[in-house]
Amino acid sequence: MQRATTVVISGPLPASGLLPLGRLTEIADALRAGGLAVLPTETGHLLASSVAAAHKAFAVKQRSPTNPMHVACSSLEMAAAYGRLDARARRLLGEFTPGPLSVVVPALAGVDDPYVTLNGTIGLRVPDHPATLQVISALGEPVTATSFNRSGQESAPVNRAALEAFDWRGEAVVHAVVDPDAVRHTQASTLVRITGPQPEILRAGPVTARQIEDVLARDNLGDEVVPQRLLH
Questions:
Q1: Which domain holds residue 183?
Q2: Local confidence band at 230 (pLDDT 50, 70, 90 cut-offs)
């Protein structure tokens, strides 16, 4: 028989969106020790784990380990420690994040397998929520950037009932920062692959192909992206 999971909920948050430092330390320490957390972003709440505990995130989501998870970083510098950011990737992350844009770039040597595709790429994003950026920064490494739901299912509203009904696979304690007002986009983040001559839109989202083209063109980094419909 699995033990019951205690869900520790933080919220409502103050107008700043920041966690009190004591609670921030609790959540970062729990993740560092191999725990799981639910954190808010502009596109929904994500299921967060540390690199070492990524297998737990796969297990509770019932997601195949052959389907790598993207990671959420707190800064460009952190993203650059995990993926090879060329001038285009840096420019797009610098323009549209924190926010609803994820980039797929070549992974750096030594990055853990749960995050790296068979093609040697990694998905990186910097989410737009003060508390989530606080937690990642305090942890000192990215967290899994996967939505809080079972694989293949739609994301549901995040509240105490949903959190306590979720099958946490025997986790003793799960921390959750709940901020429904943080979710400003109904779509998942725009996903753009930057590994070849032209950026490729793998998933359309709040940041449009035109916006990406305009930013790259301003810096003479190209003026065309391959839209999602042409990749199939």
A1: 6-230
A2: low
